[in-house]
Amino acid sequence: MDELRELSADDLPRIVATAGGVAWNGGFQKWNQRLAEHLDGRRIVLLAVEGTHFLGYGSLLWLSGYSPFRELGIPEIQDLVVAEPRRGQGVATRIIAALEDRARLRGHKQIGLGVGLYADYGPAQRLYVRLGYMPDGRGLTYHTLPVPGGANVRVDDDLFFSAASVPPCFKVLLHL
C-alpha cells in the first residue's frame, strides 16, 4: 500500500468503478453522501491506495447512529472494506489504526464499531478481536435497534454485534 489518505471529490468515479468484490458496494449516491459528510466534518473517510488503485476504505462517524455509542460520545468505525485480492495483507489493520489515531487526536478514549454475524464477516470478526475490540454487552441489534430474546430477525447486513475499545488500550466496543 502506497498511502492512506482522505477522500476527495476526484476519487468518486474511480471508487464507484472499483471491482472490489461483493462487500465493495455503493454507487455515486452513497459516495456523494460520504463525501458531503466528510467535507462537513460529520465523518472522516480514509482510502488505502496503491498507485491508481483503491485497496480499501474505512470511515469514522463522529456521532454514531447506534444510541449507546451516541449517548457516550463514542465515534463509530463504519464501512471498513478491503478489496478481495488484498484481504489478509494488513490493509484493514492500517485503516483501523489511522482512524483510532484520528479519534485519539480529538480526545476520544473509546471508539466503536459494528460487525455482521454471518460467515462472510468471519475474517472481520476475528480481526476486531485480535485488535482488542470487546463486545459492548448489549446483545444483537437489527437496524441499530436491540433484538430481544425470542425475536425472529433476518440474518443480513443489518444484523450486528457491537463492540468498543477499552481504555487505556484504546480498543473499541463492537455493536452487532
Could you give a quick summary of the protein structure above?
The protein is α+β, with helices and mostly antiparallel strands. The protein is built from 5 helices and 10 strands.
- The counted number of beta strands is 10
**Percent range for β-strand residues:** 25-35%
The computed structural class is alpha+beta
The coarse silhouette is globular
Give the ordered list of helices and strands.
Answer: EHHEEHEHEHEEEEE
Task: Report the biggest beta sheet as strand number plus sense, adding barrel if it closes.
Answer: 10 strands, mixed
- Mean pLDDT across every amino acid position: 88
Radius of gyration (Å)? 16 Å
* Low-pLDDT stretches: 168-172
| Discrete helix count | 5
Q: Helix proportion of residues, in percent?
A: 25-40%
Q: What is the end-to-end distance?
A: 29 Å
